[in-house]
Amino acid sequence: KMAAAAGAAAVAGLWSEVNRCGQNGDFVRALKSVNKILQINKDDVTALHCKVVCLIQNGNFKEALGVINTHTKVLTSDVIAFEKAYCEYRLNRIESALKTIQSASQQTDKLKELYGQVLYRLERYDDCLAAYRDLIRNSQDEYEEERKTNLSAVVAAQSTWEKVVPEDLGLREATYELCYNSACALIGQGKLNEAMKKLQKAEELCRQSLSEDSDVTEEDIEAELAIIHGQMAYIMQLQGRTEDALQLYNQIIKLKPTDVGLLAVIANNIITINKDQNVFDSKKKVKLTNAEGVEHKLSKKQLQAIEFNKALLAMYTNQADQCRKLSASLQSQSPEHLLPVLIQAAQLCREKQHAKAVVLLQDFAEQHPANAAEIKLTMAQLKIAQGSVTKACMILRSIEELQHKPGMVSALVTMYSHEEDIDSAIEVFTQAIQWYQQHQASQTREANPTSPVHLSLIREAANFKLKHGRKKEAISDLEELWKQNPKDVHTLAQLISAYSLVDPEKAKVLSKHLPSSDTMSLKVDVDVLENSHGATYVRKKAGKLTGDNQQKEQGQGEVKKKKKKKKGKLPKNYDPKVTPDPERWLPMRERSYYRGRKKGKKKDQVGKGTQGSTTTGSSELDASRTASSPPTSPRPGSGAAVSATSNVIPPRHQKPAGAPAAKKKQQQKKKKGAKGGW
């Protein structure tokens, strides 16, 4: 009994330790105490539950799940459902977490919160929205702001990935998270300018919120702002401001944020900016998209876009096998998606295998009729690149849903005209016009009047037929146009012009419908018109021409206006008494008097003559015979320096003096520069 009492006292003490550590947040020590309790009683439900909680708090989710699965008899689903589902959620076993939540007998508030998170990760946004609305409606605690933030994130995801127009939830954007999510929803709707303003507001709120905490550094604030700046750069990229976007993307990468999802998205966007340029930088950025855990941070569409860009980069870097491997993998994952087959076709075209590319696209179009239109457009482009314009036209005409579109009609008519197949071009016009007529026949005239597109097609057809000499066919189109709008004078004039070549009598009858000259007169102030700038110019010009004609009639001959010859500019030191050098325009080496430079004159004289003799006369070396010797190092700004060059005339005005004088001048310049620092 004493031993049992001692054991019970020890267990009670351990539970007190567990309670105290739990309140202090020291779950490592709490876990040690729980393990000691389990040594005494291994099937203690409370102890096992506490152990699981401690492991979760310490981040050991795998070990916690192992404890749950090992003690299933003791830890039933009613007791441990939330902890099990949370461990599975944190281990990215989202489907298992969903099953665990749904199998729980009682749906607690904690399970409902986790259920919303699981639905968001599974991208079941409609169910997720309903779950969070229910939580907000039935909960009143300090986590209401977090729930609203999650609700706004769901709305933003719907707008971005499902292109659903978000409803106004009436959320007050008091936090930067709510502002950020609102901006993402606006980006999904294409309202880029409004989204940028929201992001700027979110940045301001974030700085205010974090600056209130004295422990938060500027680096911490910049790290928190990284995701906001990333969205700003994305908007810039969508607006075509690629240089600004690229600069901001690189600034974020330099911060080395811990969010691998953010880094992967930024790296992918930089790759899309680089395209087929700067491929070495793109290959470096691809490594960021392969980081561990990226697949759990991004949506399926984001991951798919990254894989598409990897395949395109492989094509741009001439990695044909890698490109085929990636595109084939993408096609197996999304058989109905266009991009994988288009990438494969582009790779074949780079290898000059256009025929294989066309066959590949043809097979895809047959297997997936819903996407046949875009595939056939690509096939037509390939045929045009091969020079098979007629075959390209046949492919385009097989796209029934686009036959009546003005762009398609214009393209076909242009190509047929290039091939000089006028009959086929007219047939294209006829089919398009008939489509609109049938479309109108299915509805009443009041509900669907003649569309402007239909009328413009008829007019273009008439103009085309007139241009190519098909007058009779053009007349029927013009009559239809005039019938639709009898007041259209332009159409009536065209119709009369066409009939004048085929049936002049009919043209005369129709000309009676033209408005009279009185009704067509415009109220114009003749005086104002004549005094206008354009009229004055024309009148003056006409007057000059009339005067010229009169002079010609009088036999004075044609008078031409003499151009004033501008006086050439002369140099400041030009001397009119000195005859300019006739060879001044030639380079010095090409002038007749150029003798080349005499280098090393003093060196050549050393050692010449008898021993002890000098080349210079002794009288020249006698200092007593000279009044004064020139200064060897004049001070800057002294008169000697100026007088040396005051009378020198540039060679373009006077033939240069002999070589000795030039040499002496060079020596003087060298002397001046020798002690310039004095």
TrEMBL record:
Question: What's an example GO cellular component term for this entry?
Answer: endoplasmic reticulum
Task: Locate the region Disordered.
Answer: 539-678
- The keyword Ion transport belongs to this UniProt entry's keyword annotation: no
User: Where is this chain compositionally biased, Basic residues type?
Assistant: 560-570, 662-678
Q: Where is the composition biased (Low complexity)?
A: 607-641
Pfam families named in the record: SRP72 (PF08492), SRP_TPR_like (PF17004), TPR_8 (PF13181)
Q: Where are the TPR repeats?
A: 226-259
List this protein's GO terms for biological process.
SRP-dependent cotranslational protein targeting to membrane
Sequence ranges of Basic and acidic residues compositional bias: 572-593
Q: Where in the cell is it found?
A: Cytoplasm; Endoplasmic reticulum
Q: Which UniProt keywords apply?
A: Coiled coil, Cytoplasm, Endoplasmic reticulum, Repeat, Ribonucleoprotein, Signal recognition particle, TPR repeat
UniProt keyword annotation of Coiled coil present: yes
- Similarity comment: Belongs to the SRP72 family.
- Can you name this protein? Signal recognition particle subunit SRP72
The organism's lineage is: Eukaryota, Metazoa, Chordata, Craniata, Vertebrata
